[in-house]
Specification:
Elements (H helix, E strand, L loop, with lengths): L6 E2 L6 H8 L20 E8 L3 E8 L9 E6 L15 H14 L8 E4 L5 E4 L4 E4 H6 L5 H18 L6 H11 L2 H12 L14 H12 L1 H16 L3 E3 L8 E4 L4 E3 L6 E3 L1 H22 L3 H26 L4 H21 L11 H17 L6 H8 L5
Helix pairs in contact: 4-10, 6-8, 7-8, 8-11, 9-10, 9-11, 9-12, 11-12
């Protein structure tokens, strides 16, 4: 990962505890050999990404950094007790099980493997690929190359196809669900996406009038609340394959050759592939409006809009081509509905979008996209119709 994106870490992880774990005889392996004779003063821990539920750190021995690669440490955060997310249980042991199952079904999947997780510890050690940037960094730098779009959906479709009902027997998927016991993760995502954001006692109401206005509209417009309930039912009852479940900006990283790797599988469960695609599109929509807020020249703004819309279109077409789903129209209708719900969730949840912090116009425009998609999702049957509805004001 790009060192320029790292920040020294002091408070969150104890380097001595990490080093003590790495130097235990029972964990002796090639991947951690660089730390066997190291002292606490030799170890450097840099924050790479500060996510919603977890953070990633780069750990290396500064006395031999030129000879050996660093490793990645994933640390699960403690959530504020007054947060609606305070009851969420994020476990690394579950994520490790998911990654092991993915390797069983599809050894060539592009996910970051977990080297080691000690039970009851809030951290784990992940493999270190020559990763350069996260999706957040690429989009912030206006990197909307079509190769990038194709690489992301290729990695996603590879994971989906490995366990999808269309390519496997029903009992195969039922066995997987029983082995992983994924229901608790589905329940968490369901609560975070379709319930918590719409509660009248949302703790952000007092400090954000946009949230107050949004909740008022949801409550006054039965068509919106009904659509949210419909999508909640689709999410709850659709069992297609093992999905990522939380595909946000910091869950995708790229190598220098533009291969896309996925991480943060702590909410992975058996569910609808349309939900993962919706989460992916919301990442793009977020930066669409982020950049529009900062453009001041109409010509530049227009060219940018066309470029990013094409980026999203190629993403959708490429995914459909790879998956060859029997009901593509149904898929895109679900994607539209889930996209609407996910937009509202990300703007209303307690850990709302940092990317749009201070971008009042962008947040309002993005919410309008969410409402339009919820109004019209039943009539959306392709990526083209989804984009037309979503960005009709831009067109």
């Amino acid at each position: 990962m790009a060192s320029s994106g790292c920040h020294p870490c002091v408070d969150f992880l104890n380097k001595d505890e990490l080093l003590e774990t790495l130097q235990r005889p029972e964990y002796d392996s090639v991947w951690n050999s660089d730390f066997k004779g190291a002292k606490g003063t030799d170890i450097v821990l840099n924050l790479v990404n500060d996510g919603q539920f977890s953070s990633l750190y780069e750990l290396y021995n500064k006395t031999s950094v030129d000879k050996h690669p660093s490793i990645i440490v994933k640390h699960i955060k403690s959530l504020p007790m007054d947060s609606t997310l305070s009851t969420v249980s994020v476990t690394l042991s579950y994520e490790r099980q998911v990654l092991q199952k993915l390797d069983e079904f599809c050894l060539n999947n592009k996910s970051l493997r977990m080297y080691l997780h000690v039970p009851d510890k809030a951290f784990a050690f992940l493999e270190k690929f020559p990763l350069q940037h996260s999706l957040r960094e690429r989009l912030k730098n206006k990197d909307f190359s079509l190769d990038l779009a194709a690489a992301i959906v290729d990695s996603l479709a590879t994971i989906h196809k490995a366990t999808h009902l269309q390519y496997n027997k029903t009992e195969y998927l039922e066995d997987l669900e029983a082995q992983l016991q994924t229901q608790h993760c589905q329940d968490i995502v369901e609560q975070l996406t379709f319930v918590a954001p719409f509660q009248k006692n949302n703790i952000l109401i007092e400090e954000d009038h946009i949230i107050e206005e949004t909740l008022k509209r949801v409550n006054e417009k039965p068509i919106v609340s009904t659509a949210v309930k419909d999508m909640k039912n689709v999410f709850h009852f659709t069992k297609e394959c093992l999905i990522h479940g939380n595909l946000q900006l910091d869950s995708i990283y790229f190598t220098s050759s533009n291969n896309a790797y996925l991480t943060n599988f702590e909410f992975s469960h058996i569910g609808p592939v349309s939900y993962d695609m919706a989460c992916l599109l919301v990442n793009y929509i977020t930066f669409f409006y982020y950049h529009l807020e900062h453009f001041h020249q109409p010509d530049t703004c227009s060219r940018f809009s066309q470029c990013l819309i094409e980026f999203m279109k190629i993403s959708g077409l490429k995914y459909s081509e790879l998956m060859k789903l029997k009901s593509d129209q149904k898929f895109w209708s679900e994607v539209a509905g889930f996209t609407g719900c996910e937009i509202i969730k990300r703007l209303l949840e307690p850990f709302h979008l940092k990317t749009l912090q201070g971008c009042q116009h962008a947040r309002k425009d993005m919410l309008e996209v969410g409402f339009r998609l919820l109004y019209a999702y039943k009539n959306i049957s392709s990526i083209d119709s989804l984009l037309i509805i979503a960005f009709m004001l831009v067109y």
